[in-house]
From TrEMBL:
Coiled coil: none annotated. Residues 172-270 form the HTH araC/xylS-type domain. It comes from Photobacterium rosenbergii. It comes from the Bacteria. The keyword NAD does not apply. This is AraC family transcriptional regulator.
Length: 274
């Protein structure tokens, strides 16, 4: 897998934030980075696969990608992105801002923003783009303060009222809702109700976007999360099963095997063999 390093993108090692404007974003293979990334969609559509889970992107969707995340862009259709790259440990943030930065895995890491916020963010990104590419103390300080403004605008502009979204965006909202609540979800009806679409409509749209039906997508999301916990933590498998939403660990094993063609136990063995 490709691993992108800070020195390929940032002006110098003391510079904690920079921009990459993708107009458009070309398909980009799976990669991880030594920095964090905020993706702001300003136009177009595309598939965004993060930690193996497919999502769709459309205008005004915002997504936080952490260091440990892997992601790729595919099936892009005039997808315009403002990517903000940053190194969180190097930022000197105002202490109040810290609450606005999504870091924990439980935090919301993707949402739509309203058009007004999007316009303001656009302007800020433009300024950030200039300042973050100037090698001076002044510009670096200004860049960091613009970065903080962007963070707050993204929060303030977050769309909570689902009725402000069109049907396509409701489906994207639904996918992001499933990604963030997979452990407590069982039925498509609950998601459909949350996004105010009929279960029928949502079923066929999810299928169209991801190639999976709701149940497949849900189990896929749960087991993918479980796989990464099996590989990268020491948590007992039964506990992982429970955390991702399975009450019965045998059932979890069955679903896991359907997706990865190996049992959770085998997956853990592979880890210890590394
Ligand atoms: C790529 C893509 C990636 C980003 C790099 C810097 O085109 O947008 O997500 O990490 O640029
Ligand atoms: Ni990236």
């Amino acid at each position: 897998m490709i691993f992108l390093k800070s020195n390929e993108f940032f002006l110098n090692s003391s510079c904690p934030v920079t921009t990459e404007l993708r107009t458009p974003q070309e398909p980009f293979p799976e990669h991880a980075h030594s920095f964090e990334e905020i993706i702001i969609v300003s136009a177009g559509n595309g598939t965004h696969v993060m930690n193996d889970i497919p999502m769709n992107l459309s205008k005004n969707y915002v997504c936080f990608v952490k260091k440990e995340d892997r992601h790729l862009f595919d099936q892009v259709d005039d997808l315009y992105l403002s990517n903000i790259l940053f190194e969180k440990d190097k930022l000197s943030l105002n202490s109040a801002i810290k609450d606005f930065m999504p870091y924990d895995s439980d935090d919301d890491h993707g949402w739509f923003i309203n058009e007004k916020a999007a316009k303001r963010v656009d302007q800020l990104v433009e300024q950030l783009h200039v300042e973050s590419h100037i090698d001076s103390i002044e510009s670096q300080i200004i860049a960091q303060s613009i970065f903080q403004q962007i963070i707050v605008e993204l929060w303030r502009g977050k769309i909570k009222d689902i009725n402000l979204l069109n049907n396509n965006d409701k489906v994207i909202f639904a996918l992001s809702y499933i990604n963030q609540n997979y452990a407590d979800l069982n039925e498509i009806e609950n998601v459909a109700e949350r996004v105010q679409l009929s279960a029928r409509q949502l079923t066929s749209s999810i299928k169209k976007l991801t190639g999976m039906n709701f149940n497949q997508y849900l189990h896929y999301t749960r087991t993918s999360k479980a796989l990464s916990d099996i590989l990268y933590t020491d948590q007992p498998i039964t506990e992982i099963a429970f955390d991702v939403g399975y009450q019965d660990s045998n059932y979890f094993s069955t679903k896991f095997k359907q997706v990865f063609n190996l049992t959770p136990r085998d997956a853990r063995m592979r880890r210890t063999c590394r």
